[in-house]
Design brief:
This protein has 143 residues and is α+β, with helices and mostly antiparallel strands. It is 31% helix and 22% strand. The protein has a single domain, classed as 2-Layer Sandwich (NE0471 N-terminal domain-like). The protein contains 5 helices and 6 strands. The chain starts with 8 loop residues before the first strand and ends in a 13-residue tail after the last helix. This is DUF971 domain-containing protein.
Length: 143
């Protein structure tokens, strides 16, 4: 892993709607929705090529918690309860520098599937059922 792939700074933006990563003084902002739909978890990516699961209804998702994992990754907890998958430094670097292409690809796949980024009543009910999972209040919320 190149040292250039490790961010100098990691900041959660106000409103928990985006993560800012700084590489060589260059600020890269990654929206929570983008991070969520490109989660490195098996639930999203599948266990093999072609098994990816299109994530829909994530437009309102926010980042509830950030947790360093050793010296190599971040664990991100989202407001929809999703908290699996580790964002290692090379993957975060890829997301930061390929954001435009990856976001355009996601929007194209949503359109082709006839799906929506806007959460449905079913999405909201599933989130409520999953409960709040910020890790015991580490996000500063009250449970």
């Amino acid at each position: 892993m190149s040292e250039h792939q490790i961010p100098e700074e990691i900041r959660l933006q106000n409103g928990r709607v985006a993560l800012t990563l700084v590489y060589n003084g260059e600020h890269k902002s990654l929206p929570a929705e983008f991070l969520r739909v490109y989660s490195p978890s098996a639930e999203v990516r599948g266990h093999a090529p072609g098994q990816e699961v299109l994530q829909t209804g994530k437009a309102d998702v926010t980042i509830m918690g950030l947790e360093p994992v050793g010296q190599y990754a971040l664990k991100i907890t989202f407001s929809d309860g999703h908290d699996s998958g580790l964002y290692d430094w090379p993957y975060l670097h890829k997301l930061a520098y390929q954001y435009d292409e990856m976001w355009a690809d996601y929007l194209r796949r949503i359109e082709l599937a006839g799906a929506s980024r806007i959460p449905t009543a079913e999405d909201l009910a599933a989130q409520a059922k999953a409960g709040h999972s910020c890790g015991g209040g580490s996000c500063g919320c009250s449970h």
